[in-house]
Amino acid sequence: MLTAATLGTAAVLGATPGIAAEAQPKPAKQNPRDKYPKPPFEPQRQPWPGLASQMKPRPDHGETSYIGSGRLRGRKALITGGDSGMGRAAAIAFAREGADVAINYLPAEEADAREVVDLIHRAGQKAVPLTGDLRSAPFCRQLVDRAVSALGGLDILVCNAARQQSIASILDVTDEEFDQTMKTNIYAPFWMIKAAVPHMEPGSVIIGTTSEQAYDPSPDLYAYAQTKAATMNYVKSLAKQLGAKGIRVNGVAPGPIWTPLQVSGGASQGKLVTFGATTPLGRPGQPVELAGIYVRLAEDDGSFTTGNIYGAGGGQGQP
Ligand code: NAD
Ligand code: MG
């Protein structure tokens, strides 16, 4: 597991609000190439949807390194795929910034989700674990309702869950696989956003996780990549539509990030061993490296940011 000590981060040096910046401990400046594990990685395969706790090395979601400073105090957030990867990094960061957080995940991911619930509690915030499958419209509507009643409202909706399966030829993409990918990545955000908007007051935000795949699709991700282009597109149309209500809508576009999605069918074994090697930084990103982007898009300081896509791609795949 990556620890603050091995990474040399300023993990445990809590910043004190109200103290001049010069008086705060200085976070270490690090070479981004050396900050996290690099390829080659051990070959590994987990049954879908995979667990972060079983990955070698374990991804860094900010467990020991993310430091909050009250940027989301009092906010109420619902994050899909909040058990692992980008969703977990956002959940930890939101909680440490003072938000109460509901997470959705699949029953098979209970072990990862328990860790996130514990981390949210340790940040002193309310955690609402809501298990269930987003490929069902009634479930998506129920999920929003359950989050709203458990949190007492909804200010931040992060549509982050996704299905990605690497399949070399379109001839081998079954109708069922194509349908599951569309249901998870396109229909679920549609169902959830429709259910959430009536609960959202001005100042609320919707964040979609898109991908470098929206701009530069891989040949083996025919189904998945087009859903990420669709995500980018719905972010832009909804931002125009919901601006009148004072609701901002933005997207996050990660490059190759070390998450369970990749080891449970998202990447071929060949690609996994050299994962991230093609980036100018020579390694994959870690989920924590996107945490601050989700916070930025959710907080009031980002009040003029809507219809925008923020990337963290290690130097590749972005426009
Ligand atoms: P991840 O496996 O940690 O997260 C994906 C989550 O989706 C899972 O944890 C699971 O809870 C959820 N999910 C999938 N199908 C579901 C279903 N039917 N019902 C409920 N939940 C379901 O992987 P991640 O890489 O952190 O993925 C998060 C987002 O990041 C996705 O939108 C993905 O497209 C995007 N992304 C990932 C990468 C990468 O390299 N890892 C790159 C670009 C974009
Ligand atoms: Mg997961």
UniProtKB/TrEMBL annotation:
InterPro entries to which the protein is assigned, alphabetical: NAD(P)-bd_dom_sf (IPR036291), Sc_DH/Rdtase_CS (IPR020904), SDR_fam (IPR002347)
Region (Disordered) location: 14-68
Domain of life: Bacteria
Swiss-Prot/TrEMBL keywords: Oxidoreductase, Signal
PROSITE patterns, per the entry: ADH_SHORT
GO terms, molecular function: oxidoreductase activity, acting on CH-OH group of donors
Record's signal peptide: 1-20
Keyword Zinc-finger: no
Name of a matching Pfam family: adh_short_C2
Membership in a protein family: Belongs to the short-chain dehydrogenases/reductases (SDR) family.
PANTHER family linked: NADPH-DEPENDENT ALDEHYDE REDUCTASE 1, CHLOROPLASTIC, NADPH-DEPENDENT ALDEHYDE REDUCTASE-LIKE PROTEIN, CHLOROPLASTIC-RELATED
Protein name, UniProt field: Uncharacterized oxidoreductase YghA
Organism: Sphingomonas glacialis
